[in-house]
Amino acid sequence: MTSHLVASLIDILRTAAYFIAVITVLVVAHECGHFLAAKLLKMRVVEFSIFFWKRVWRIATINGTEYNLRLLPLGGFVKVAGMEPDDLFHGAALIRPARATKREKRLIGMSDDAMARLVPGQIGEPVRELAWNSVGADCNLTFRGIADLQQRLRSADLTAEERNYLQQTLDARHHEVDPAEFNQRPIWQRAIVILAGPFASLLFGYLLFCALGITMGLPDGIPTNQVDTVVAGMPAAKVGLKPGDRIVAINGKPIRTGADTVNTIHSSAGVLLHITVQRGAQVFQVAAAPVATNEPILNPRTHHLNTVRVGLIGYSPVEQIVWRHSSALNSVRVCSEQLYTYVVETLRTLFSKHAFQNLGGAVSIGAEIHHDSHHGPAQVMLTAALLSISIGLLNLFPIPILDGGHLLMMLVEFIRRRKMSSTEVEAFQSIGLAIIAVLVLVVMVHDIQRLRG
């Protein structure tokens, strides 16, 4: 009993170590893309941290960038100056708009509407007038304006909010425009920094895949006649096939290998098949007609992708992974073709009506890594490579807080020819957080149901 508990504990710790290592490496690889692009464009990178939460070790400070190791061992982040919503107007000159427009200012560190949002209705019109009139035609505080602000701050009849408002205006003169900040750069440079993250994830996954091919060999999945997953709404689900079922015969002909099953189903589009299924000690028969679908198929001899019309009933077989060694050149070629196939299939899944049934979250990732940990580091690296590619693709979706959401905000800025205010950005990102929270919850519930089922 004790040895069993010890073995279980070791198994859990091994899975946790693999999970933390995989997530951290993939997130850091993604953040390295943002980091290197920002550095190449000479933007000011404030911090690059491995892990989150409290800092436990300041590794070094090089060229103004602080490199830290933090306490919570999961992922990492890069902080580029001027990238956060509160930094949108940092380093900008004070601006007094024409009296015919809304009387709003852009202050260094905090916009006028941001201050008004913090203390709505508690800053009187005379105080606002004083702040506005302290700005000269050159968009900076005048000497007279500074003197007026200082004198008014000595007055006892100001509220705490009005005093803070005037102090913010007065403090603005101590700042200068910082051209090295993210928000001071043209859209095309900001877009490059944002796109560099997803690109780095795709590149890292591809290179990891190629490294596996060159060193340990290429994984070749040999299908078995056992059901792994079932796609909702497809014939397999409609006739009641479940994960773990074993297909033993089709139309009375015994099935000895997974390849026999796949070939028979693929070549029978639109033809009703009588499938004999074994579920534990029970053997029963179902009837299903494969749905005709265009699928990219990798030719095992030429390693080229060919689009062919095949029949599918909507299940994935359990695969036995065999690692096959080949030359470096052939490994790179095959990895490139498999990368293309994986990207196409991922995008097709995401845009299909069965997207939620095929998506997996932290629970599915943990389960997959737990399974892979029993088959050695090579299998874990293969999963990490595919996850990295998925991270790169998913981050391009135009959902606020994802990289695609940042690109969407830049598109809005380009169309209307002015930056979004901090209030607008925060509202936009709040919507994105809500969308992500709902997606995470739905996917997590689905993951748990799938594992229990």
Give a structural overview.
This protein has helices at 2-40, 112-118, 125-133, 143-153, 160-171, 187-215, 235-238, 258-266, 328-350, 355-358, 362-373, 377-394, 403-416, 422-452, and strands at residues 45-62, 65-80, 218-230, 246-250, 253-254, 273-279, 282-288, 291-298, 305-312, 315-324. Mean pLDDT is 79; it is low at 88-120. Helix 6 crosses helix 9. The protein has 453 residues and is of the alpha+beta class. The protein has a four-stranded antiparallel β-sheet with strand order 5-4-6-7, with helices on one face. A two-stranded antiparallel ribbon has the order 1-2. It starts with a helix and ends with a helix.
Annotation field: number of helices: 14
**What do the pLDDT scores average to?**
79
Low-confidence runs = 88-120
Largest sheet: 4 strands, antiparallel
* SS content category: alpha+beta
Distance between the termini: 28 Å
Query: How much β-strand is present in the residues?
Result: 15-25%
H/E series? HEEHHHHHEHEEHEEEEEHHHHHH
In the sheet with the most strands, the strands line up as 5-4-6-7
Shape: elongated
Number of strands: 10
